[in-house]
Amino acid sequence: MTGTPRNGVELPDLTLGTWDIRTPAQAETAVGAAWASGYRGIDSAACYENEDVIRRAIDSCGIPRDGLTVTSKVWNDAHDEAAARAAFDASERRLGRIDIYLIHWPGPVPRFLKVWRALEKLYEDGRAAGIGVSNFMVPQLEILLEHARIRPMLNQVECHLWFVDRPLLDFCRREGIAVQAFSPLGAGSGVLDDPVLREWADRLGVSPAQTALAYLRQLGIYPLPKSSNPDRIAENAGFRNVRIPDDGMAALAGRNRLVRTNKDPFGWFGQGYE
Ligand SMILES: NC(=O)c1ccc[n+]([C@@H]2O[C@H](COP(=O)([O-])OP(=O)(O)OC[C@H]3O[C@@H](n4cnc5c(N)ncnc54)[C@H](OP(=O)(O)O)[C@@H]3O)[C@@H](O)[C@H]2O)c1
Q: Of 147, 137, 133, whose CA–CA distance to 170 is shortest?
């Protein structure tokens, strides 16, 4: 892979997650609040069925499109080269412009290599400024890197206080692949009630959500919190002002249980998965 070109755009330090944001009113409230709080990334996907409402929200909030990095993802029903290109065309029609395009889930090996070829072409044609993957584990990344002409700029994976895959983070760091954390607040699984997280939030005088996001940032990960509530959207952006000391980072690292809230990408590795 030495000499294989890197691709991509500068990742915003804070991107709004939008899974479950469906209605125009929800999208306008969330996107407007995120922009006002300094989020410069919006994460969507074909399977969220909200690309059109996200685009309308960006337009109706008067957000300068060049100031925003919008991500979308190719879903599992489009896992060959032609289908992935058609999926991009459809998502681009709904979103107007896609800055970063990801393979949402790897699925079986030969198929993700075909999808990656489609993404490489989209990048070379200037249709997406950045291409990358999501839910890829180390063995899947190794196979991808062995065959890719263009390296993925990022891997979007589940990552929060209770699930930090250190070997994956180390691998991505070595390979120059940015890691973006989905479900960084634990997706309602109870992470924000963790007693050690709460203890450190109290000590620092900030909220558990801000502490959870600051923890990820200090691990070198880009967090992707979702909220449709303007107060929580603003609260979450406040993580930028939080600095966790070394003993706090060590205490929080001790909470890693390696328990996912989402699917295990290995569960779909080499199997039927639609
Ligand atoms: N690539 C993938 O396969 C994948 C998978 C899952 C998610 N994602 C992306 O990652 C984004 C984030 O992940 P996620 O939505 O699973 O989980 P998350 O961001 O960890 O958690 C979202 C939940 O936390 C609540 N919340 C937000 N801020 C809060 C705060 N300050 N205090 C208390 N509760 C708070 C939200 O409720 P309210 O909305 O009511 O505030 C929502 O129920 C998604 O929206 C999506 O864009 C990608």
A: 137
Sign of CA dihedral 120, 125, 130, 133: negative
User: Cα(225) to centroid of ligand 1, in Å?
Assistant: 5
Q: What is the CATH number of the domain that holds 116?
A: 3.20.20.100
Residue 110 inside a domain? The answer is yes
pLDDT of residue 267: 64
State pLDDT tens for residues 191-229: 999 999 999 999 999 999 999 999 999 999 999 999 999
- Model confidence pLDDT, tens digit, residues 72-123: 999 999 999 999 999 999 999 999 999 999 999 998 888 999 999 999 999 9
CA distance 154 to 93: 24
Q: Is 123 a catalytic residue?
A: no
Q: CA-to-CA distance for 103 and 111, rounded, in angstroms?
A: 11
Count the domains in the chain: 1
Work out which ligand 1 atom sits closest to the CA atom of 157: 1
**φ, ψ for residue 144, nearest 5 deg:** -60, -45
| Ligand 1 atom nearest to 43, measured from its CA | 47
Mean pLDDT over 35-62 rounds to: 98
Cα of 182 vs centre of ligand 1, distance in Å, is 7
Q: Does some domain include residue 87?
A: yes
CB within 8 A of 152, min separation 6: which ones? 7, 131, 132, 133, 136, 141, 144, 177
Distance from the CA of 150 to the center of ligand 1, in angstroms? 30
Ligand 1, pocket residues at CB < 6 Å: 17-19, 43, 104, 134-135, 156, 182-188, 192, 209, 224-229, 232, 235-236, 262
